[in-house]
Amino acid sequence: MTGTANGTEASAAIPQGAIRRRGLLLVLSSPSGAGKTTITRLLLQRDPTLSLSISVTTRPPRPGEIDGRDYIFIDQAQFARMVAAGELLEHATVFGNFYGTPRLPIETALATGRDVVTDIDWQGTQQLSQAMPEDLIKVFLLPPSIAALRDRLQRRAQDSAETVAARMAKSAEEMSHWPEYDYVIVNRDIDESVAEVAAIVTAERRRRKRQLGLAEFVNRLRAG
User: Fold this and answer.
1) Which pTM does this prediction carry?
2) Distance between CA 21 and CA 116 in Å, rounded?
3) pLDDT tens digits for range 26-64
4) Which among 22, 38, 19, 41 has a CA at the least distance from the CA of 30?
5) pLDDT score at 165
6) What span, in angstroms and rounded, lies between the C-alpha atoms of 152 and 1?
7) Spatial distance between the Cα atoms of 213 and 179, rounded to a whole number of angstroms
8) Cα(87)–Cα(203) distance, rounded to whole angstroms?
9) Rounded Cα–Cα distance for residues 186 and 30 (Å)
10) What is the per-residue pLDDT for 157?
11) Which CA distances in Å does 28 have to 134, 160, 178, 200?
12) By the 8 A CB rule, do 39 and 187 touch?
């Protein structure tokens, strides 16, 4: 079963002197309809060791969304209290609704070696880049064409025609932020895109800076 960053499971005991790894935070961003939510869901199914960061939001649930699984749905007063208390790593306003990433679950997961994935927009990603630059892996997803993006928004039938038009109008601005990301994927095929993101996660887990205790391990090897 896929975990979430809100979980409280303790990590397995790590022998003294062993190589252990600090977790990473993977961010997927894209214009609305370009696939970030679908790819996040499929990535979690493919890799059950990944945890999902559950964002808080003031927008109402869409059909099929469940509180605590897809988002934590709160009112504006509660959101404002969380911002004032410093309980959010990032927060942004998107189409008149507020979104934010709870701080404590993320920091706890990374400290215990668990990897977390979240799908947020460029505004939130910029704030995360300032809050935890060493832990963040940023992936931007592009649609293969504007026509494909419009088709996906219309086919998912979650928004009114006016909202779809607003999202399309904003897509050019959203896509202009692609240079701020570590990796860029053109989402032509959903399965291929999921495989590409999974390969990024595998490589980033092997980063030297995330392997805590590696220097001591190598020194022991050299000493025989």
Assistant:
1) 0.82
2) 13
3) 999 998 889 898 999 999 999 999 999 999 999 999 889
4) 38
5) 82
6) 29
7) 33
8) 31
9) 10
10) 61
11) 16, 25, 11, 12
12) yes
Q: Which residue, 133, 174, 216, is CA-closest to 33?
A: 174
Domain boundaries along the sequence of the chain? 21-53+115-223
For 85-116, what is each residue's pLDDT tens digit?
999 999 988 889 999 999 999 999 999 999 99
Specify whether the CB–CB gap between 143 and 152 falls below 8 A: yes
**What are the residues whose beta carbons fall under 8 Å from the beta carbon of 167, sequence distance 6 or more?**
31, 32, 33, 95, 153, 159
By the 8 A CB rule, do 138 and 197 touch? no
Report d(CA 91, CA 127) in Å as an integer: 8
What are 59's two structure tokens? Answer: 């927008």
Distance CA 173, CA 166 (A): 12
Q: How far apart are the C-alpha atoms of 26 and 211, rounded to whole Å?
A: 17
Residue 148 has pLDDT above 90, yes or no: no
The β-bridge relationship of strands 50-52 and 115-119 is: parallel
pLDDT band with cut points at 50, 70 and 90 for residue 1:
very low
Does residue 177 or residue 151 have the better pLDDT? 177
- Mark 194-209 as b/e (b = at least 16 C-beta within 10 Å): bebbbebbeeeeeeee
Residue 224 pLDDT more than 90?
Answer: no
How far, in Å, CA of 38 to CA of 155, rounded?
A: 14
What is the token pair recorded at 163?
A: 């909202």
CATH for 21-53+115-223, options being 1.20.1420.30, 3.30.2010.30, 3.40.50.300, 3.40.50.11810: 3.40.50.300
